[in-house]
Structure formats: C-alpha cells, structure tokens
Amino acid sequence: MEKRDIRSYPFEQLKGEMLLIGEKAFRAKQIYEWIHVKLAGSFEEMTNLSKQLRAKLAQEYEIYPVEMLEQQISQIDGTNKFLFRLRDDNVIESVLMRYQHGNSVCISSQVGCRMGCRFCASTLDGLQRNLTPSEMLGQIYEIQKLTGERVSNVVVMGTGEPLDNYENLLIFIRMLSDEHGLNISQRNITVSTCGIVPVMEKLAKEKLQITLALSLHGSTQEKRRELMPVANKYELSEVLKACDDYFEKTGRRMTFEYSLVHGVNDTDEDAKELISILGRRNCHVNLIPVNPIKERNFEKPSKKSAFNFKNKLEKSGINVTIRREMGSDIDGACGQLRRRYAQRE
Ligand code: SAH
User: Fold this and answer.
1) Rounded-to-5 percentages of helix, strand, coil across the chain
2) Using CA atoms, how far apart are residues 27 and 154, in angstroms rounded to an integer?
3) What percent of the chain has pLDDT over 90?
4) Which of 130, 245, 309, 326 could bond to 165 as cystine, CB 3.0-4.6 Å?
5) Beta pairing, strands 4-5 & 66-73
6) What is the dihedral of CA 61, 161, 90, 14, to 10 degrees?
7) Inter-residue contact 213 to 170 (CB < 8 Å)
8) Which residue, among 71, 67, 140, has the nearest Cα to 103 in the 3D structure?
9) Span from the CA of 288 to the centroid of ligand 1 (angstroms)
10) pTM for this structure?
11) 257 CA closest ligand 1 atom index
12) How many CA atoms lie within 13 A of 45 on its CB side?
C-alpha cells in the first residue's frame, strides 16, 4: 500500500491519525512539531520518540521529499532560485527574495498550469498536476533549511493557478499560519489569481486575513482577453465585483497586478482606462514590466515609459509601485528555470 504523506495532515487531523494507529493523541503534538517547526525530513530524526514508534510511523507514513536539484544565486541582489524534485520526479521552482522587511518566498502551487496567459512561461506545457499541501509547505521548509534563514513572507505567485488547486491551498494556508507550525501570520501571505470568479467568492467567505492579488493586465474586457484566456470565461466586470466582495467580506485591501507589455497595454489610453476602473477603489497596484520569454515576442516598456504610466496612476490618487526587478541575471520569469531544466534533460 502507498504510504501516506504525514506532512499533509493539519494538526487536528494528525491527532485522529494517531488514534487510528493506536497511539495517544498527544503524540501528534510532538510529531507535528518535528515536521513543521524543526523541519525534520525523516522519522529517524525524531529522537524523543521511541524506536518502536518511529518504526511504526515509518511503516504507515512517509514525509514526501521536496529535494533541491539546483540553485541559482543572483549576483545583483542575492535572490535565490531553487529547482526542487518531487517524489514522482516532477520538478518545480521557488524563489527566495531578501527584502529589508524580511525574507519572502515565492512558491509554486501546481506542476505546470492550464490558464494559458500569453506572456507566461509556466503555462507553455500545460498542467501536470496539483501540488499537495505538503509539497507547498516543503518548498518553504527546504529553503529555510538550506539557507538557515527565517522566512517571514510567503507569496503564492510561482508556477500554477492557486485557485485551480483550492482545497489544497486552503489546507496549506491554515497549516502555514498554525501556531503549532511555522506560525506565519496570514497577513504575510499573498495569493495571486488570474481571476477565477466563483472560487474568489468562495475564498472571500473563508474570512482569511491573507492578501488576494488579482492579475489584471488589461483594463478593458477586450484587452484582458488578448493576454489571458481566462477572460473568455469571466467578464472583467464580474472579476472586479468579486474583488470588491473580497474586500468587503475580509477587510483586506486588494492588490492588482498589471504586467506592462510594450505597445499592448502600456499606452496613455490604457492608463486612462485603468484609472477609470480602479480610481474609486481602495487598492494597491503593482506594475510588473513584462519579463520577455523567448517563446513569445512581447517586449517590456522602457524605464521611462513605465515611470510615466506609474505617475499617471499616482496623480489620480492610486497607490502604485513598480515591482523591483529581482534576480534579473538569473532565469527570472515564472517557470523559466524549470522549463530550461526540462529541455536540457
Ligand atoms: N496564476 C497566478 C499566479 C501567477 S504568477 C496568477 O495568474 O496570478 C504571478 C504574476 O506574474 C501574475 O500576475 C502573472 O500574470 C505574472 N507573470 C507571469 N509571467 C510573467 C512574465 N513573463 N512577465 C511579467 N509578469 C508575468
């Protein structure tokens, strides 16, 4: 029988598991701490458990590996990119960014992606499978272990559409912010979505304190459809309504991501449209000069033109930043490192 991945069980569920295998519930506390605080990768490390118990656990369960394959370190800003191998040999990537306010890890939520955004490398080969809560946590745990540095912020902005893997995402968020585990505040967790309206509505009802970021990328329905196939399914007006609903229900201000593509969505007209839809909203706008991938011929705007765009929004009272380019000397764009690895193998 396939051994179950013990790292995917939330604390309460782990208690139930212990009862199932004839152990006392309090064992769950010890084991949970080993896995989620001391970041143990095997049962042998759990030295305050008896040999018999460790053997019994190893018979029933496994801690599925998230094993580092490669690491790239930016010479410019110390950003690290990691390639990890999973138990079934699938490969995923994660990024560690060091900011003044602390370390932020960007994790993948799926192997590949089926959303098809035009400028994104993660989606070129479609979706392989969802990641489990354990595999999402594992990326953060491995990075903490490899660097010896504490992670204070987590952004689910790597490969994959997190709301296309909703059940696992929720378990992951609750475990990551559980006081029995790493205890990362939900306010320090950001989930980015291309805008799957019914799932955004569900998420709003969970009343989590996470930040929701919407990938907008176009300020009209037509513009959005050019860049994001998901816009064929959900009208811009519905998406914006779901954003308002999220803010209303959670009190958390929305972030809007807008990847600037030269000549496609960065004109004065685009800025005007963007102001007209976001101007009255309490939100934050994050402009991302597009990171060109060789499979498509999109270009990034000049620095000057990006600043111009930003200034226009600012003058209308919109809270806006241009995303600082991190690790531009390594395979920076979403999914590029993994893709290069796959092509090499
Ligand atoms: N599926 C989620 C997470 C994707 S990655 C989502 O769509 O939001 C996080 C952000 O990076 C998204 O806004 C995505 O559209 C953007 N992105 C992906 N590839 C990019 C590229 N090559 N250049 C600029 N932004 C990119």
Assistant:
1) 40, 20, 40
2) 29
3) 88
4) 130
5) unpaired
6) -10
7) no
8) 140
9) 9
10) 0.96
11) 13
12) 14
Asked if residue 154 has pLDDT above 90, the reply is yes
Whether the pLDDT of residue 321 is over 90: the answer is yes
* 196 C-alpha to ligand 1 centroid (Å): 14
In whole angstroms, give the CA distance from residue 130 to residue 262.
33
The residue assigned the tokens 């590996």 is: 65
| Alpha helices, H only, 22-165 | 27-36, 51-60, 133-147
Q: Is the pLDDT of residue 147 over 90?
A: yes
Distance CA 147, CA 258 (A): 31
Indicate the pLDDT class of residue 333, thresholds 50, 70 and 90: low
Atom of ligand 1 nearest to the CA of 298: 22
Separation of CA 120 and ligand 1 centre (Å): 6
**CA dihedral defined by 148, 150, 156, 159, rounded to 10 degrees?**
-10
Strands 61-62 vs 80-86: parallel, antiparallel or unpaired: unpaired
CA 73, CA 83: separation in Å to the nearest integer?
A: 12
Q: Return the ∠ at Cα 239 (arms to 155 and 195), rounded to 5°.
A: 35
pLDDT at 40: 98
User: In angstroms, how far apart are the furthest CA atoms of the chain?
Assistant: 69
Burial class (CB in 10 A: 0-12, 13-18, 19+), 248: exposed
